[in-house]
Design the sequence.
């Protein structure tokens, strides 16, 4: 019989839930909630969602902000913009069914690997370009987590002169340049207008100034991709997230392949859809691996 | 009975050979040769070494410059400063015994993992700081090679404004800053003296100018280590090679751990010795894995 997961995506702003089957198909309505401000309210929301659906599923699969440990049951350290106590959530205690937790970007990377853009490719790096930048690394058809589970943080440096503060507390990380927030900062630096928005840039992208801003932002993404390709010798780099719409994927692939010292690789857009975090968490929780 | 490998280290300047046992011990004299200028002369030297020693050993283990394929029998693409035809060497045909080939930095990383500084640690990144920078990545107690074997190239960017040309043809790679050559270039930039040598800097390291140069160079190494720790969540980063003598390892470990978003890790100096390339290639060829 086909197995199912109750998938719950936990972000700093929104929490989503739905039911996903072993094929990675969403087979119920996707419900959307604003993320509550306190630990207790978040826990109460989880309990409400779980009590409503747990009888229909085999496992509860969380895709969450924050780094998740290697036993897939807890969060390591702190997470950005969500209630301070959230990382201490005891996920296992939320249901009598099995509960599985994975980082959202890692889960999204797994969805791309099983049903999306990196299907059939054993080695891939997924970059989720949104307000921030998430990363998920698949090596030898397995999700790479490192010694404690925190791997895949795209906080490598783009310059070394402490020019731009990063959300992580350090300076000049890839996230601080390649993200939507990074584009806004690059736009402010180039235009001299501190009020400029990413919307202004994208809506007016044929104007020379905006074109220059977008090219600078895209070049930073290119430089990051080159570094990752030289480190991993991957089959592909997948660009995911809302900001991935605004890059020239063919250019990135062609240019990166000219500059690497490793072997030719692809740069592709994500194709597992908006709910790839929930789909990937469900597929991981259900133990679905590459079939080919 | 204890097995042995004839280990041959092939660099652009020197070729070494010796015999290594399963414990990673060098049990014969280390012979040293200048690297011949042509493919045919290099091949003749290999044949001479192999015919002299192959009867005493179980396998021939090469640690070579250049990326080595995943079947460990050939070189991928081109390699820097060695005879142009060298990458097409048919290593298997050199002996009736089994021939095993691995990249020198990968081999050195394996030696550190089995008998050196990263023994007992499943996840490590080895940076070999010499004239250039080599890299070797151990993940889950296995040498990480990527889809074709070329992984571990430490050519990620330190800046994005095409400031300093790298040996790889691109600009501003970690190698172009963290290497001995990088230190010389940093020294020239800071001092304004294009003739300055790394020797000048190191011999006069208590003078404020030289101190500033060394600190700038070391800071670039730090920034690279931070990025790698955020990507891999490793147990440790091992610094190897002649230039590793000139960094403050305790400072690097303390400062990097303050800036990462992943979990605490060590920064340690290599301890497998000058011949870690030959030792690691031998241990890989003999199939020696982590015992604990």
Sequence:
């Amino acid at each position: 019989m086909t197995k199912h997961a109750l998938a719950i995506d936990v972000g700093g702003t929104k929490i989503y839930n739905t039911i996903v089957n072993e094929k990675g198909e969403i087979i119920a309505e996707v419900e959307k909630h604003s993320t509550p401000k306190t630990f207790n309210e978040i826990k109460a929301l989880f309990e409400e969602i779980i009590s409503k659906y747990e009888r229909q599923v085999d496992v509860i699969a969380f895709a969450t902000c924050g780094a998740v440990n290697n036993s897939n049951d807890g969060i390591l350290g702190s997470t950005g913009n969500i209630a301070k106590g959230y990382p201490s959530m005891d996920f296992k205690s939320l249901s009598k069914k099995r509960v599985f937790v994975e980082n959202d970007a890692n889960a999204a990377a797994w969805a791309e690997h099983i049903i999306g853009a990196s299907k059939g490719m054993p080695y891939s790096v997924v970059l989720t370009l949104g307000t921030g930048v998430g990363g998920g690394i698949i090596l030898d058809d397995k999700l790479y987590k490192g010694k404690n589970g925190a791997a895949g943080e795209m906080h490598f440096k783009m310059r070394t002169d402490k020019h731009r503060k990063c959300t992580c507390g350090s300076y000049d990380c890839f996230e601080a340049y390649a993200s939507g927030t990074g584009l806004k900062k690059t736009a402010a630096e180039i235009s001299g207008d501190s009020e400029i928005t990413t919307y202004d840039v994208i809506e007016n992208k044929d104007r020379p100034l905006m074109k220059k801003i977008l090219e600078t932002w895209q070049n930073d993404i290119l430089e990051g991709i080159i570094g990752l390709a030289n480190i991993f010798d991957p089959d592909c780099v997948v660009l995911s997230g809302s900001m991935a719409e605004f890059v020239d994927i063919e250019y990135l692939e062609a240019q990166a392949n000219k500059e690497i010292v490793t072997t030719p690789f692809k740069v592709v857009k994500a194709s597992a859809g908006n709910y790839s975090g929930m789909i990937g968490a469900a597929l991981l929780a259900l133990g679905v691996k590459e079939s080919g």
Notes: The first strand of chain A starts at residue 4 and ends at 10. Chain A has a mean pLDDT of 96. Helices of chain A lie at 39-53, 104-115, 174-178, 180-191, 198-203, 208-232, 249-259, 276-285.
